[in-house]
Each structure stands twice: as C-alpha cells, then as structure tokens.
Design a protein that fits this description.
By secondary structure, the chain is an all-alpha fold. The chain is built from six helices and no strands.
Length: about 120
C-alpha cells in the first residue's frame, strides 16, 4: 500500500490559515466546514488545548503534495481506505468478482457460437 496516500497532511491549498482543518477534512472525508465548526466549538467549550494542538499539527505535519490524487474519485477512494480498510478491501474484491463474472459471460457467449474457439480454449486448459 502506498503510505503517502494514507498519511495526514495539512492542506494549505484548501485551508484558511495553516491548512490543519482542511487536512483533517481531507483525511477523514468530512466537509471542512464541519471540522472548522467542531474546532471552534471545542475551543469555546473549555478545551483550551485545541489551539495548541492546531499549532502543533500545523508545524509538525507535512504539506499535502500537489499531485497526491489524480482526480476526485481517487481522493474519495483513499478517504475510504483511511476510514475502513477492511470495507474498502471487500468492495474491491466484490468489483473484481463482478468483472470476473462478466468476463465469463462474454467467454460463454463467444464460445457457444464458435465451436472452433471452444475447442482451442479446452486445449489450452
């Protein structure tokens, strides 16, 4: 597995200040607005250590590479991997089983209408 896509990065391109909330949103797949509101509410509700955590993450975490994801679909896939690797593995296996089933249907269609091809395939097995 490519660990670069499963690491936490601060997202300066989509961030307001240091990109920590945008990085958390990208990492978890949540909307950045909810992450920012959660941070503000947690700070106002007496969690005075939240600004310290924010600055620590801002200074210690790496900036998100520009070419980390090819497109939005890839970003969504990797967010799913970070949230639940087992579920993502099941989904990928399911997709491969579906592709295998569809290929078997194509093979059956062409083999049933072409006895010469059927004989050649049987000879290869």
């Amino acid at each position: 597995m490519n660990t670069a896509r499963t690491k936490f990065y601060r997202d300066k391109a989509n961030g307001k200040w240091m990109g920590v909330c945008a990085g958390i949103a990208d990492y978890t797949g949540l909307d950045v607005l909810w992450v920012r509101l959660g941070f503000v509410v947690a700070t106002l509700c007496g969690m005075g250590f939240m600004p310290v955590v924010y600055f620590a993450l801002g200074f210690l975490s790496e900036k998100k590479p520009i070419s980390l994801y090819a497109d939005a679909a890839e970003a969504k896939f990797w967010q799913g991997v970070r949230q639940s690797p087992a579920r993502t593995a099941r989904e990928v296996r399911s997709q491969f089983r579906d592709i295998d089933r569809r290929l078997a249907e194509v093979e059956a269609f062409y083999v049933s209408s072409n006895p010469t091809l059927a004989a050649e395939i049987e000879q290869l097995r």
